[in-house]
Amino acid sequence: MTGTAMHQPTTPRSVLFMCGMNAIRSPMAEALAKAALPAGTYVASAGVRHGERDPFVDVVLDEIGLSVGRHQPRTLDELEDDYFDLIVTLAPEAHHLALDLTRSMAVDVVYWPTPDPTVATGTREQIVDAYRAVRDHLATLINRRLVVAPAGEKA
């Protein structure tokens, strides 16, 4: 990457978000990115292994007017497309797999360490707060690192 490219970021045309089971972090990131990135940007998510849909994801996305729709967790093998400009990994196991799979490909792989909210304990509200924290963390990263402001504006 040239020095100019680092200072003049471009919005990727296709982004894959990866986590452990495609149940919480990556589908949440997918929904947030679809809302934030320009129309026509292909955004998908996948997990290293199969998982179950998590209802708390629906709760915290609904609070900000978003939804994962009919999303069902899927693995990399179940993706329709296998080429992306950027792969964003949200868990260590996903990062290691992405690096292994893209060794001979021209694709950027970045790791955004993101906590697993399922480890939260306490009341329902305390657990939902952990999911909100993940949602807000991902929204901040997407807006700071993937959303490119029009020329002359600050991102």
UniProtKB/TrEMBL annotation:
<dbReference type="InterPro" id="IPR023485">
    <property type="entry name" value="Ptyr_pPase"/>
</dbReference>
<feature type="domain" description="Phosphotyrosine protein phosphatase I">
    <location>
        <begin position="13"/>
        <end position="149"/>
    </location>
</feature>
<dbReference type="InterPro" id="IPR036196">
    <property type="entry name" value="Ptyr_pPase_sf"/>
</dbReference>
<dbReference type="Pfam" id="PF01451">
    <property type="entry name" value="LMWPc"/>
</dbReference>
<keyword id="KW-0059">Arsenical resistance</keyword>
<protein>
    <submittedName>
        <fullName>Low molecular weight phosphatase family protein</fullName>
    </submittedName>
</protein>
<dbReference type="GO" id="GO:0046685">
    <property type="term" value="P:response to arsenic-containing substance"/>
</dbReference>
